[in-house]
Amino acid sequence: MTDLMQRMVDYANRPNPYPLYEELRRTPVVRQEDGTYLVGTYREIVQLLHDPRLSSDVRNRADAPPASEEGDGMPLSFILLDPPEHDLLRRLATRHFGPPHRPAFLDGMRADMARIVRERIETFAGREEVDVVDDLAYPFPVTVICDVLGVPHEDEPLFHEWAEGIIQPGEATGPEDLEARRGRAEQAIADAREYFAGLAEERARAPRDDMLSGLVTDDGPEGRMSRDEVLSTAVLLLVAGHETTVNMITNGTLALLRHPEVLERLRREPGLIARVFEELIRYDTPVQFVPFRTTVADVEVAGTTIPKSAAVTLVLGSGNRDPAAFREPDRFDPDRPEREHLGFGGGIHYCFGAPLARMETQLALGELVRRLENPRLVTDTPPYRRNAFLRGPRHLQVAFDGVRD
Ligand code: HEM
């Protein structure tokens, strides 16, 4: 049997990895030829997401890079750390993003986000066809995350470039290409950090109502992040908040267009969007797997012992289609009673930005469905990005008969 991971990253399987996942789930814990492990069943993924013996700290990896992945000597962002460092940095970031310290921050941005979506869709008027990726799903989240952080609008184009650069390694076609792409990613991270260093200086001198200002002037009971930690956190939010949401909006549009009865129902009942969102993230998961967890002790899962220091990949996209957790998992059904999907991960690294991702996607999809007259796919199957981990179409051409007011 060819290595399952190799087949999962094989571009030919990008439009539909789900038959492969069915094969993966036949064995809850799969050992690959290179000694790494894959886990694709719902119950075992949940177990491992909550097991402290699975480390997210890249320094525990057998192939750990000499310094950090984010540039020499720079502190790691909290997605790549374990407790207690992870928990402290996440708490310090949360103080400037949501409850209990800033309960109204995201809600305060809702009207602006709705306006951005409206203005984008207004530009569709008079056209017969748009690319949902380039015309909405790609530019929208970058504008939002720049607003969250406090990046001036005129600097936004830089962020498109950096966000794209940083995820380059996931697009590699082979080992040589991977080296080149890693180089580009490192450069993009260094450039983004340098930019944030300048902006952090400005915000420390003259704070505003944004997250960066909050982080650099924090006077909370647990102290303040170091300046380097602020930069790592800002870069993390940029990356984690961007490409994920692009795929969410695009995969969501695709699934709705392939299920016109749900689309029509959503148009009649806009309040259904919250349920539709949860089903969409389960049905076509934008972050297909959590790679790079490392065991720091022998861990027994479903009768198999994963030895200490092994690399483990948790395939969320497969867990979300596990028939043991979801009845008829391949059916797109917003009314299904089982809703505990793995789309935002689980345990201590559960997606920090989930409330923002929900708000952005619900606004974008809700407005698309409401405004586009008779929308339909121009090409089914659309072309996909190379990235197997952040999986989604590169373009999604949609034709329509007009734009409603
Ligand atoms: C639909 C869009 C999104 C999806 C599908 C998604 C998915 C995920 C997943 C699966 C994880 C867990 C990773 C792990 O366990 O290592 C995660 C973590 C994270 N996400 Fe999201 N995410 C989305 C949007 C966002 C947004 C908008 C932000 C920015 C505000 C964000 C910030 C983060 C951060 C900072 C973490 C790390 C949390 C930690 O380590 O404690 N995400 N996300």
From TrEMBL:
GO terms for molecular function: heme binding; iron ion binding; monooxygenase activity; oxidoreductase activity, acting on paired donors, with incorporation or reduction of molecular oxygen. InterPro entries: Cyt_P450 (IPR001128), Cyt_P450_B (IPR002397), Cyt_P450_CS (IPR017972), Cyt_P450_sf (IPR036396). Residues 56-75 are annotated as: Disordered. The keyword Iron applies. CDD domains: CYP164-like. Keywords: Heme, Iron, Metal-binding, Monooxygenase, Oxidoreductase. Pfam families: p450 (PF00067). Belongs to the cytochrome P450 family. This is Cytochrome P450. It comes from Georgenia thermotolerans.
